[in-house]
DNA sequence: CTGTTAGCGCTTTCAG
DNA sequence: CTGAAAGCGCTAACAG
């Protein structure tokens, strides 16, 4: 029923091989012949059979992008940038190069992460870009390392974006490259900003435990505190939860219950900060008059919430684009396969000196 | 190098056919044999070759989800819900059913929409879910109709989510179903709310022209005005632009320049409303004291901006999930293939009676 | 520059 | 319930 390469070849009065060649543009074909083939393709509305060509060529034009939460712009921005780089036609006016960049939503679940990787392996994906922080569970790290090793063996290029190479400081999975963010430095600078304003009792609403992103941001926070000579037990002033508004809301109430003397709350990211702000408002506290709040990521809405959120900007789009280009082999792999992108403090209206 | 079905068969001492049967679980196999095969699969770390099986079976386990802007939670929420339904294993403990739901970001570009559809057709996708409003350009409608027709002929199920069937009230493309939102009704109720508060001069920051979503929301707005006896030329109080914060910002300034007497601004969606709020604040106007602002969609951040945004809630997750289930044949197609989901007015703090 | 010839790895009748 | 055999539609040497 559907038209095949052979049908096109018959109509163009050439061999199937020739049709394949003009379609893939990777082999010299006489201009006249090419045109005749192209005309036949157009006339017959021919669409290449992806599976068949993938089978024969032992590689497909599918590129997977894994994200933890597709409804979160943090991932959407990275994925969009990566996808647009990957979908971009190759430099010269070639017919090939058109890759199908697809994003897969793991929902933050380690099992689904592995499942998607298997599905992508099954499709013989040309490359895989994995975004967002990783789970630091030994079993999962082992499973991921094994899976990525197999993917690499099968010829799939693996690039991490916003995630450190796995395992953190171990033998390492055979990835092409890793683009990471300076979460630790960003966290440190954010807290230094608060300390400079005069804050001493700072609550911290952390992300889910065992996530690299969570740990690094928290480490930066604590390093700043330590450097300022604040040595008291910080665990009491820290509460872990998912990267959601709701978690920020609950955690803030809880932290304030534990220590009503807090003058500032630092959230694991902007979304969590939104929940913190809401909780504070419900308590009748003014921001930053009564208490300061800070986020992380600088998502587009951060500047619009009331008051504009002090946060740390991460070059999400740039990182995603870079990961996409590396996955396509269009950008040199950074030295050591590792590139860290800066995190910039953005001091806005939600932080101010504590009210004596 | 990589292990094939035949390798597994050899190790399990059965024929390749048998291995295929246990893997697909669609044919009776003796329990003992099945177990032997499964063990061999596990021991050899075998992963099915997707392209080969898709070629042989003439269908793949790929399902595409098209979105206009992956960085926008409006799409992220729908896509996430759809993807999670599609990725969900089938009811019974079957091995099959595991579909690879992938989201494709068109960036709102008609060409890329068509390109992705072709790529998906090339992959012999099992189904395609297209989210978001459609472009009402005759040429694009024709191209889409043709493309969707070919997809359907090739056995791909097409479901629209948040988009009316194409062409609007014409012969219609052969889609399985369309889930739409009551954008018109929502728009009408939102403006009725403003009118009830006493507003008479309302600026409208519309979305991109020629988009169904834009048109329907605007129609609802104008219907409410007409019903209230406001007959003056509304074009002067309307300005089109992309669904971005920046557009909301610029358009609001422009509308206020055209008519400084505006007492309210209605935005095409929450993101645009954010830009409108920012512009108003820069002008030193208080919301809602000096001027009211309303959005549309009720994205998660809407309640957190200052002041909390009056908007219209759309059941995005529910619509996406439903579209996903229909695409998988797990939910009955609604009567006439068309289901409209309600839009609920959410009156919050950003709207109030005009200040005399 | 173009045609011929083998498969790629799997599914699927069709027989047992 | 299981095996044998015939392709699915395309690409990739290899000749010409």
From TrEMBL, chains A, B:
Residues 3-57 form the HTH lacI-type domain. InterPro entries: HTH_LacI, LacI/GalR-like_sensor, Lambda_DNA-bd_dom_sf, Peripla_BP_I. Pfam families: LacI, Peripla_BP_3. CDD domains: HTH_LacI (cd01392), PBP1_LacI_sugar_binding-like (cd06267). Keywords: DNA-binding, Transcription, Transcription regulation. This is LacI family transcriptional regulator. It comes from Streptomyces yaizuensis.
């Amino acid at each position: 029923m559907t038209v095949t390469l052979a049908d096109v070849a018959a109509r163009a009065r050439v061999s199937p091989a020739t049709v394949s060649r003009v379609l893939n543009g990777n082999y010299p074909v006489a201009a006249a012949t090419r045109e005749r083939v192209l005309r036949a393709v157009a006339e017959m509305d021919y669409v290449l059979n992806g599976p068949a060509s993938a089978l024969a060529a032992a590689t497909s034009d599918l590129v997977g992008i894994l994200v933890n939460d597709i409804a979160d712009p943090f991932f959407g921005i990275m994925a969009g940038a990566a996808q647009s780089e990957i979908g971009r036609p190759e430099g010269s006016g070639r017919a090939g190069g058109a890759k199908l960049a697809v994003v897969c939503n793991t929902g933050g679940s380690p099992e689904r992460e592995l499942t998607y990787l298997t599905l992508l392996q099954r499709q013989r994906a040309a490359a895989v870009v994995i975004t967002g922080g990783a789970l630091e569970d030994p079993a999962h790290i082992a499973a991921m390392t094994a899976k990525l090793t197999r993917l690499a063996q099968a010829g799939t290029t693996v690039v991490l974006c916003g995630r450190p190479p796995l395992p953190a400081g171990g033998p390492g999975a055979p990835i092409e490259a890793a683009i990471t963010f300076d979460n630790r430095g960003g966290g440190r600078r954010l807290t230094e900003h608060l300390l400079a304003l005069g804050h001493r009792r700072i609550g911290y609403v952390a992300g889910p435990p065992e996530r690299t992103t969570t740990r690094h941001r928290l480490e930066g926070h604590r390093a700043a505190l330590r450097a300022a000579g604040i040595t008291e037990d910080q665990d009491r002033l820290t509460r872990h939860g998912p990267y959601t508004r709701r978690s920020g809301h609950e955690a803030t109430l809880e932290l304030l219950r534990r220590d009503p003397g807090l003058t500032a709350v630092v959230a694991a990211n902007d979304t969590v900060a939104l929940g913190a702000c809401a909780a504070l408002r419900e308590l009748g506290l003014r921001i930053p008059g009564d208490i300061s709040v800070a986020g992380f990521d600088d998502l587009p809405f951060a500047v619009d919430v009331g008051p504009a959120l002090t946060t740390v900007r991460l070059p999400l789009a740039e990182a995603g684009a870079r990961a996409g280009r590396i996955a396509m082999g269009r950008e040199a792999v950074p030295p050591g396969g590792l590139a860290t992108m800066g995190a910039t403090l953005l001091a806005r209206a939600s932080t101010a000196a504590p009210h004596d």
